[in-house]
Amino acid sequence: MHGTNPYAQAGWYNPQNPHTINNHPWGSSGNGNPGPSIFGALPYANQGQVPTVLTFHYVCLNPDVLNCTITGPTSIPYLEVATVMRNNISTTVFRKSDGRVLASIEWTRAPTVEIAGQTLSKRLVSQWMRSSPDRSQRGMNVNGRDFIWVSMPTGTCVFAHGDTKNALVKLHRGPQVITLELTTEAFNAGLLEASIVATVLIHSGRNFD
Fold first, then answer.
1. In terms of Cα–Cα distance, which of 158, 133, 156 is closest to 145?
2. Alpha carbon 197 to chain centroid, angstroms
3. Where is this region: Disordered (predicted)?
4. Could you write out the DSSP letters of every residue in 61-110?
5. Up-side HSE of residue 77: CA atoms within 13 Å toward CB?
6. Which end of the chain is flanked by fewer CB atoms within 10 Å, N or C?
């Protein structure tokens, strides 16, 4: 059957043309230049060497990502993730080192997600991370911009709507650790919190569609 592919129009990755992905160096802005500095946005041991790619590790999986520690670019614990019972509902809570809750996921029959502040009000996970028909990709809106999570052989990548050349986020799993990498462009677009929460959802092993 021939015709227009609505997912290609919407910016979905086209597996028939995989070379449209990652034509530019990882961590660059597409023109070969590094992304803008986020000096001061996160703590660094040496603030004279702020990276253009921020790396977070999900470690101490107990027994999985629903109970773990997330370390930041300096390997210092950034968040604690714990799944507990709240009002008879299994809830995954993302808690900062000062005790404040960054986000929560309620594992009801139709799971919901909420991120503190104005990042994301409580809503269905299935609406926040919309699945493509073959479930290889998911659409997400953050701060009014559309992004696409694409499953690839080496892991998962995030692209801005309409741009399948420059990966903003990379996510991959090792034997005992899950690694999340964000370019400074992704950070400045407000993808940090959303990516941290989405990583747990993707690797939770639970159905949220």
1. 158
2. 6
3. 1-32
4. -SSSTTSEEEE-TTSSEEEEEEEEEETTEEEEEEEETTS-EEEEEE-SSS
5. 13
6. N
For 103-113, the pLDDT digits (tens) are 999 999 999 99
- Lowest average pLDDT, out of 1-10, 131-140, 156-165, goes to 1-10
pTM, full prediction: 0.76
* Averaged pLDDT, 25-42: 39
**How many CB atoms sit inside 10 A of residue 194's CB?**
25
What's the chain's average pLDDT?
81
- Distance between CA atoms of residues 124 and 118, nearest Å: 16
Judge contact between 122 and 115, C-beta under 8 A. no
Tell me: the pLDDT tens digits for 50-91?
568 999 999 999 999 999 999 998 889 999 999 999 999 999
Whether a cis peptide bond, with omega within 30° of 0, leads into 63 is: yes
Nearest partner of 38 among 194, 189, 172, 197, judged by Cα: 189
CATH for 19-28+53-202 is 2.40.160
Cβ contacts of residue 82 below 8 Å, gap of 6+? Answer: 67, 92, 93, 95
Cβ–Cβ under 8 Å, residues 58 and 68: yes
What is the percentage of the chain residues whose pLDDT exceeds 90?
A: 62
The domain spans of the chain are 19-28+53-202
